Amino acid sequence: MNRDTIRQKLQTDQAWLERAIVSLTQNQAWDADHVQRATYFFNWINRGNHLTGRYIEEARQYVMMYVDDLLNIILRTKREKVVKLREELEREERAIKQIEESLSQLPLTGESNVPFEQPGKVTAAPLPGPKVKKFAAPAVGGGAQVIQREMTAGDAIMADGRTVAQACFEEGWY
């Protein structure tokens, strides 16, 4: 975005002109001798109306004096968005790391003998019958839960050592 682009948009696009008036007013960029008329335009636009007729040309004359201020507002807004996106990305990466650490501590086969009351740990006990499978899964609100179910085709072992069900879950298929 540069000054020429802003000038061209203000000359040809009424929506740009109206947004420029709103931005300049909200950022208090108007000079003292322009603030009264600019406030009139701002209030008109803020009520949901559009500038018409001679008011468009009058507003355009005012706004064209503030192209540098508009450029600064646009650049500052873009920088703020980039900073917010970086912060959000860092939060997401930390959350993913915590989840990965939690999952890496959970035994997949329930082989731990740590009492179940400790968050993130699962107590293993021998299960009756060969057709029952026991595994650890993350519990709602943190910690872990032990899940028992009958073995199904999803328990078949794949070439990489994962069960079909694990592969489907990890790939996000269900």
Description:
With 174 residues, the protein is mostly helical. The chain has 2 domains: 3-83, no CATH class; 107-170, no CATH class. The protein is built from 6 helices and 2 strands, in the order αααααββα. The protein has a two-stranded antiparallel ribbon with strand order 1-2. The longest helix is centred in the middle third of the chain and has 39 residues, at 67-105. It starts with a helix and ends with a helix. Mean pLDDT is 78; it is low at 112-130.
The assembly state of the depicted protein chains is single chain
Count of helical regions = 6
Secondary-structure-based class equals: mainly alpha
End-to-end distance: 44 Å
Which descriptor suits the 3D outline? elongated
Indicate the percent of residues in helices: 40-55%
Detail the topology: elements first, then pairings.
Elements: H1 3-12, H2 14-26, H3 35-46, H4 54-64, H5 67-105, E1 132-138, E2 144-150, H6 164-170
Antiparallel strand pairs: 1-2
Helix pairs in contact: 1-2, 2-3, 2-4
List keywords for this structure.
53% helix; 2 domains; two-stranded antiparallel ribbon; elongated; single chain; mainly alpha; 174 residues
Provide a quick synopsis of the model:
The chain is mainly alpha-helical and 174 residues long.
